[in-house]
Amino acid sequence: MALDNKFVAKGLRLYSARSVANRTKTFVAKKNKVVAPKKVVAPVTPVEKTFGKGKRVIAAKASKFAPSIPAEIRSTAAKKVQQKVALRKSITPGTVLIILAGRFAGKRVVALKQLDSGLILITGPFKVNGVPLRRIDQRYVIATSTKIDVSSVKVAATINDAYFAAEKKSTTKSEGAFFSDEKKAEKKKIADSRVADQKSVDSAILAVLKKEKFLTVYLKTKFYLKKGEFPHQLKF
């Protein structure tokens, strides 16, 4: 008969683990544990049966029950399928966007294209308002009615999601660095290839901006709401 070891308080039972073991004598059963011999499974040979005029080899019969050993269960790992993100109809290549959050909140930028991850590739240009080539989610931008002709802008195929992937930092530290009191913040050096990519994209956009009179000033001006203005009442 099982021992009724009920709770007397939250997380506290009437008998301790030692008391339960002494009362039920579970240690005796563990000491005198009988190990059952392993069953030797006989190899299954295919059986040949006659059906009418012909003969057929019957394969091994499938097991009636599911395997109890985890190694025998076939793993069904889910395949990661990246679904295509639908872009808003108001966002097209060349659309001027207003960034709503982050480091460049309020800046006006130019949308270049949609990447495979669904994020939008944007640029300031950097020479105009200091916004470099970046990725941004469409939920953090407002699409304006202003559009720039970016048909002459050629974005390299290398500028993709892997282009913006962050480098993995090493977690191991030397003994001197671990015990040092002063921590010098090293300035991250931008690769020459990234600088060249930024210049090639910006030069094509700046050539288009020269043709329009107020576009450069428009992109330089930061967006903000004045007193009495509400974003849902504005036409962008």
Description:
- With 236 residues, this protein is α+β, with helices and mostly antiparallel strands.
- It has a domain of 112 residues: Roll (SH3 type barrels), CATH 2.30.30.
- The protein is 21% helix and 17% strand.
- It is built from six helices and nine strands; from the N terminus they run ββααβββββαββααα.
- The strands form three sheets. It has a five-stranded antiparallel β-sheet with strand order 8-7-6-5-9.
- The longest helix is centred in the last third of the chain and has 20 residues.
- 12% of the residues are buried.
- The model has no long low-confidence stretch (mean pLDDT 83).
Helix content: 10-25%
Q: Report the radius of gyration as a whole number of Å.
A: 35 Å
Order of secondary-structure elements: EEHHEEEEEHEEHHH
What is the average of the pLDDT values?
83
- CATH class value of the domain at 85-164 and 191-222: Mainly Beta
Quickly give the structural class.
Answer: alpha+beta
Beta-strand residue fraction: 15-25%
CATH architectural type of the domain at 85-164 and 191-222: Roll
Q: What does the largest sheet look like?
A: 5 strands, antiparallel
Instruction: Give the spatial strand order of the biggest sheet.
Output: 8-7-6-5-9
Task: Report the count of strand segments.
Answer: 9
Which of globular, elongated, flat, extended, rod-shaped describes the shape?
A: elongated
Count of helical segments?
A: 6
Oligomeric nature of the chains:
single chain
- List low-pLDDT spans: none
Task: Give the terminus-to-terminus CA distance.
Answer: 78 Å
Can you tell me the CATH topology of the domain at 85-164 and 191-222?
SH3 type barrels
